[in-house]
Amino acid sequence: QVQLVESGGGLVQAGGSLRLSCAASGRTFSMYAMGWFRQAPGKEREFVGGISRNGGSTSYLDSVKGRFTVSRDTAKNTVYLQMNSLKSEDTAAYYCAARLALSPTLVYISSKDYGYWGQGTPVTVSS
Questions:
Q1: pLDDT at 7 over 80
Q2: I need a labelling partner for 60 at 20 to 30 A (CA). Which of 20, 35, 49, 77 fits?
Q3: What three-state secondary structure class fits 108?
Q4: Spatial separation of the C-alpha atoms in residues 124 and 86, rounded to whole Å
């Protein structure tokens, strides 16, 4: 089992940057594929970016490609979401998620693939 705690959200002007962190408990962080999702008010939760167990594969929502980067630090049991060139439409609560993964290289993009979730951190981009 793994527990996830996000941090780093806040208020930022359009064009600015934020880095979200997700700290995972436990000693088996390297066994989990990780994902970032977001949910804006009145909208469904959507996949933003994900990273494989070994960190070698990533996948992104089309609208954030080239602006957002997912990375992981196994030594720190932490996954990051670097967000640059933020837009007002990026405003949402951001959640990290974990999935125990047999494959070291697969990235999972459906919320149904993940069994563990953090509590979320809010991101507000002002225009």
A1: yes
A2: 77
A3: coil
A4: 10
